[in-house]
Design goal:
Layout lengths: L2 H5 L18 H33 L15 H11 L10 H17 L9 E4 L2 E4 L8 H22 L3 H32 L4 H6 L6 H4 L1 H14 L11 H4 L9 H25 L23 H9 L1
Antiparallel strand pairs: 1-2
Helix pairs in contact: 2-11, 3-11, 4-5, 4-11, 5-6, 6-9, 9-11
């Protein structure tokens, strides 16, 4: 940890250590990988339900309310519908790239969370293991690289259809993502300089008393604006502007290929939120001074996973 980071924590609670993988086994890694996949899918399902119910309320309509209690199973119904829907493509499409592009986007979306620490060491089947699949000294660089690979799926998907609207959408997406990734990367550099490391677990450990969102407020604001542009949400939705491009690069896709694009888009929203939580909001550390509460360690066990999810 750098000298600057130490001067920002004069009255800190006991320092939390970076992730310890000393008791890790192959089956624990596999179990955590499955957990990450299920966690992301369930998070997307809940986000879709909240978004659609919220939009329904704002537009004075009920929203999803048939599939399951309060419409909670609507996302499952949509997935089944896409799974059995006829797969249609144009004769002029580049077939191989057309089929591979959605998989590239989905693969990169699922891989980002592998290096995000979602909690401290917990006991799983008699072994102490961190709620993190892996960590490297260049974890943040890995996240930026994997996220950039997803852009290839967008660009190739739009180009492979040989159609005007998807091509325009993919070009817009490429220009926007590249632009906002520059600002996002520069906002993260300030954290690297303070912490002295790009390891996500070390960045979280360095925030045991002060969040970088407060200590490095301008960088956090830049990251927040950039992450909204990165995932093409309002008001930065030009790559998928419905009034101009219908659905952007996904316009010519149907069935589960459209579903993979749709899923990866929402997973990326959780990915950028997870990075913001990890780098600027203290990661899995307890908020609001709960770290100082005597007799109860709110930074141990599954408490950390709860705080991480609430911050996201």
């Amino acid at each position: 940890m750098s000298t600057l980071a130490l001067t920002l924590t004069p009255f800190a609670p006991p320092t939390t250590a970076p992730a310890d993988f000393s008791e890790e086994t192959w089956w624990l890694s596999l179990l955590k990988a499955l957990f990450i996949v299920l966690f992301l899918i369930m998070s997307v399902i809940m986000a879709l339900w909240v978004e659609r119910r919220g939009l329904g309320r704002m537009q004075t309509r009920p929203g999803p309310n048939v599939a399951g209690p309060l419409g909670l199973f609507q996302a499952f119904a949509d997935a089944v519908k896409l799974l059995f829907k006829e797969d249609i493509w144009t004769d002029k499409a580049e077939k191989f790239i057309y089929f591979v592009a959605p998989a590239i986007s989905a693969f990169s979306a699922f891989m980002v969370l592998a290096v995000i620490p979602m909690g401290p060491n917990v006991n799983m089947f008699g072994r102490s293991t961190p709620l993190q699949m892996a960590d490297t000294p260049i974890a943040i660089l890995y996240i930026l690289a994997i996220a950039s690979i997803g852009l290839y799926g967008t660009v190739l998907g739009g180009w492979s259809t040989r159609s005007t609207l998807p091509l325009l959408g993919s070009v817009r997406a490429a220009a926007q993502v590249i632009s906002y990734e520059l600002a996002m990367g520069l906002s993260l550099v300030s954290v690297f300089l303070v912490v002295g490391s790009m390891s996500t677990s070390e960045i979280v450990a360095a925030q045991h008393s002060v969040w970088w969102a407060f200590a490095l407020l301008p960088a956090f604001i830049v990251y927040f604006i950039s992450m909204v542009g990165e995932v093409n949400r309002l008001p930065f939705d030009l790559p998928e502007a419905e009034g101009e491009l219908v659905a952007g690069h996904m316009t010519e896709y149907s069935s589960m290929k459209f579903g993979w694009y749709y899923l990866s888009e929402y997973i990326n929203m959780f990915n950028v939120s997870a990075v913001a939580t990890t780098v600027f909001l203290g990661g899995w550390h307890a908020p609001f001074g709960l770290s100082y509460v005597p007799f109860i360690d709110f930074n141990s066990g599954w408490w950390g996973f709860l705080w991480f999810n609430l911050k996201m």
